[in-house]
Amino acid sequence: MxxxxxxxxxxxxxxRNPDKARELEALMPGWRIEQLAADIFPPEVGDSYxxxxxxxxxxxxxxxxxxxxxxxxxxxxxxxxxxxxPGVFSARFGADDPVGRLLAELVGIESxxxxxxxxxxxxAVAPDGRELRGTGILEGRIGHEPRGSEGFGYDPIFVxxxxxxxxxxxxxxxxRSNSHRARAARALLEALDT
Length: 194
Ligand code: IMP
Fold this sequence. Notes:
Helices cover 30% and strands 24% of the residues. The chain is an alpha/beta fold. The protein has one domain: Maf protein, CATH 3.90.950.10. The longest helix is centred in the N-terminal third of the chain and has 15 residues, at 49-63.
């Protein structure tokens, strides 16, 4: 086990997003996930999810004084018709109504233009500065109207490849096994175990 602490390993998650913290806790069985105690987080200014995830983890490392792993995460959605944007700018896309904005951008666009993917990068930094990384991708397409009530963000309009309904309809249990964050967490857990 990659924990430097004894007992149940704890990782401190450098994010202010409680939805992601809840998902991550379910995705890392055997780990306790605490949200970093910080009021102000640095802005996301990197050109890639990895840079942003790493910056969050290193910020957390500088704040967290205990001998615990610190995690940083960045994720986003990429849509074919938007030249595979908004990508790293996903959080700033569409202000209060990102789903409405994305659907509006895709009016009149069918088939290939609606192809999309979710991407997630997770970075873990140990107390000694050692860094590990996990990447996850979920391919799919954007539906025509919001459906379903679980998940968050773009989930009501994201239909995964091989499925006929949205992530919000498939639900949180499905997300725990299949989401981009689940895939990134599995990759990170493998790295933590080696
Ligand atoms: P950030 O990683 O906090 O910068 O946010 C990334 C953006 O992608 C946010 O707008 C989220 O709503 C969206 N996003 C990331 N992961 C998911 C997900 O699992 N479901 C739906 N939207 C997501």
